[in-house]
């Protein structure tokens, strides 16, 4: 009963890509994703675009003359400051005004931004982010789709790839708010052992090679990882580990969900000033940032999730997913069948910010570098105070995180760990300090093959160093004091 | 009333955010000056926004806002600040928020909802617009094997969505006044659970300016439908994007400068909603800014009972998260003392309604001039919305075929209406250069198992309509109607 224009429908990019590379990605999809229909109205609308001069009375879109916003402008830091973040924090720096108009020339007009669009988001914004991707990761052959941030993107990927009864792989301590989101979909998690440097590749290999489909159901085909400033352990995967993990994913045919909101917050970078001067900030950053899974993705098995949440602000509700064009197409169909494309103001803001009237991509990288310096300062302060007030007692220790926002503090109890940690958490609370206990993030192993219960290893706290200096000093003083009370 | 049995397995199995437990324990803690090192947010001093400015129409002019907006009329500047007082400051707006959205925006919309709709006992939750809200609601209540009820002509952009996870639709017969309550009842009475599975328990409707037929449910029909819902324990999903675009109502006296007087008059021009009569808590109402501000706002809200409100909040926390700061800031300031206030927003709505009514009048004029004289089509005058439902008299076509009814399935077509419709649609698009949506795009597939055999005219024989919008410019409308007239002549006189 639905008319889809036949002769006039253009072949989708995904179809062309598929024929060219002869890769069948459909086998990774959930039953739901496979059976999802494209929006018939949008198909007709697309066909109507084909012939110029066609009068379209088919769509119920308000005319742009009725949008009651003719200009939005944003007062942002000037990127010409030597250290934009410091100048912004101290209020001494200059400001820039970034503007988007409905009826005047600008990078992305409100006329376009405020209209209905396709799930992937507006082309100008996708292109700008694809350009950023190219300069940082040089992805082999991927497509960008906009998201409403990484929680949105990730939970959509769960729906895209997971059927009830599926097992997905994850780090044994992980961002449980997200892994919990998969549970009502009938997905179960298989945790992978971690050490100080993140997930242990040999354990990933062990799980896959010893998997018994008769007893355990379908072998896992998805790995969820947070490779930089892993949440909660704060570790960053080395290049060697990433290559090992990618090889294992290749051997066992796994899709890698690379959740990377902290990617741009890296420390001890040792960036070359001369590179900055000669080639700009983007090139200089690209040379020192970690190699992403995306950058080595010749199989098209990586779905990379980037977000503006930690580098601009959480309320941006904007990010981008980079994946092979088939997955991008299917993801867009899911978006068209749910939340729809991102909001116009956010897209307009990003387009203007990264455009020639705004910071540009290099300016954005300069802001990010400035952010990294500020976060590094706080990290260093945290570790200093930690050494003085906490580590000296011997009741806790911590590695220096190379990126992100978290410190993974190892503390006392190694027997009866879960109960003692609970007691310690409450004691800290009574003394006026909140830190996240490791148990909040622990994924219990249900395969029975891990050999040790995670409850024996929850003797950690996740602490953040993104608060004020005062918070860091006072918080750690309280922590040190409380540990002494608890263990003595 | 406990309606928890309506929830899907997925909704029932959903866990609350584990970090919430920590937050609960933290909030129960009696210590003052609690230091938190538990979060993972950037500090607000690092948000690169000091101020955001929006230029909007001034709605305080006694003259019409929309007209003056497009004729260089007065404008108003609304701002969001970091360092100065405003309704939703930047430091608060850009934080991670939970579930229902930022409290300032939620409160502003709750005030508006309470004033305009007077819901008995409901709660407001923010969405990214009605598509977002609706598809979340579908997941909340639907799972594989379930059936949902809706108008027999409905909006596939939305009704296609739950098909992917095994929910099926039952289309209920309509007339020019929308869904027919007696037909709804018939479907429920005749439902054979042995053959079809669980009886449908959710009704999805667009009660004002229905998409695609343009119909509006009368107050009488609403009461009857609500009564049916009570007897058969249905959830009513009231999707109402065109609610404020209702025509031919006695005009509010604009010169009335008194805000309360204006609001009172404005409310009197509105039709009572399902929400306002929802004593059981079985209605979930969806409102959106898409048609009254802009589609790209991507902001709306769901009003529902406490249980559903909490469940939707949990689902939001497990998926999209609450909406973007930009949208929440704009709407909060717009409705506040610093913006239009509720009264000013109602003035804008009134003005929009007049503008769309002008466009409707224009279309009907041109239709009468260019199309009606052909004798091959007629059009309704919709009470509301953005669409007209053009009826095409296919029986006048030389190749129209009607088979004699000789028993067999009550849902199989007896005429070639659908084929002729498809042909007309393609000719109009490819030869005459005008696009209308054919009725078949919107038709919900019928199933003989739930259709009454006696005297039922198959839906395929009744798909004799084209949906046209009057939301475009006069130029588009004029050209479109001229091409339609010409196209019809050539089609019927081949």
Automatic annotation (TrEMBL), chain A:
Any idea which UniProt keywords this protein has?
Aminotransferase, Pyridoxal phosphate, Transferase
GO biological process terms held by the UniProt record: alpha-amino acid metabolic process
Against CDD domains, the record matches this protein to:
AAT_like (cd00609)
Molecular function GO terms recorded: pyridoxal phosphate binding; transaminase activity
Which branch of life, at top level? Eukaryota
What cofactor requirement does the entry state?
A: pyridoxal 5'-phosphate
Q: Does the keyword Transferase apply?
A: yes
Record domain Aminotransferase class I/classII large: where = 102-477
Report the family membership: Belongs to the class-I pyridoxal-phosphate-dependent aminotransferase family.
Record's protein name: Pyridoxal phosphate-dependent transferase
The organism is Suillus fuscotomentosus
Automatic annotation (TrEMBL), chain B:
Q: What keyword terms does UniProt attach to this protein?
A: Aminotransferase, Pyridoxal phosphate, Transferase
Entry's Pfam families?
Answer: Aminotran_1_2
- Say yes or no: keyword Transferase present: yes
Q: Which GO terms describe its biological process?
A: alpha-amino acid metabolic process
Superkingdom of this entry's organism?
Eukaryota
**InterPro entries (alphabetical):** Aminotransferase_I/II_large (IPR004839), Class-I_PLP-dep_aminotransf (IPR050859), PyrdxlP-dep_Trfase (IPR015424), PyrdxlP-dep_Trfase_major (IPR015421)
Q: What is this protein called?
A: Pyridoxal phosphate-dependent transferase
The organism named in the record is Suillus fuscotomentosus
Q: What does the organism's lineage look like at the top?
A: Eukaryota, Fungi, Dikarya, Basidiomycota, Agaricomycotina
